[in-house]
Amino acid sequence: MSNNDVRYKIAKRIAQELEDGQVVNLGVGIPTLVNAFIEKKEVYLQAENGLLGIGPPPTIDQLDIDLINASKEPVTIAKGASFFNSADSFAMIRGGHVDVAVLGILQVDTTGQIANWAVPNQPILGVGGAMDLVIGAKKVIGAATLFTKDGNSKLVNTLTYPISGIRTIDLLVTDYAVFSFENGEVFVNEIFIDMPIEKLSEKIGITLKWRELIDK
């Protein structure tokens, strides 16, 4: 399985979390792929550069260099879409009018706090809308492959990268499992691989618990 296939599988799983009528912001990386899997749902996609009503991914014939999202990727517009300046866009986010933010992550700790905008000693363009989305969205979903190319877990006991905000995420969707967080503990809501939870705990270096057992 290629890494690209894994990214699409994560995006497809996240699309299942979205509901009719929600205003959703898709962040950089894997989140931008979610749009391809939103089917039979009326979801309003928002881009912080000033667009509400992003349509399906464009075909070659639909490419318009002036029509892009905040990640500078080409998009289409849905019927009834609206354009506005970035100040109004961030007012929507900070005012709690975004139902779901889907954010790519570099690290997430056992409390659910994330780091997703800077790597120490590497040049960056800036935090963008990450801090505003973490605080302002009603629900935050993290999207990431569980391990780096070097084999290090992105799910860690303590963040070593700059934090994106004190708000914790509601869900982390990875290629291995779906995780949630509560009182400093990490729960597995769903697992995608043939691996006992004890083995996955050992591989990550964090004790995991089944969410369904806790709920009962």
TrEMBL record:
Keyword check for Transferase: yes
GO MF term set: CoA-transferase activity
InterPro entries assigned to the protein according to its UniProt record, in alphabetical order: 3-oxoacid_CoA-transf_B, CoA_trans_fam_I, NagB/RpiA_transferase-like
Keywords annotated in UniProt: Transferase
Keyword Transferase carried by entry: yes
Taxonomic superkingdom: Bacteria
Family of the protein in this entry: Belongs to the 3-oxoacid CoA-transferase subunit B family.
The protein, known as: 3-oxoacid CoA-transferase subunit B
Biological source species: Lysinibacillus halotolerans
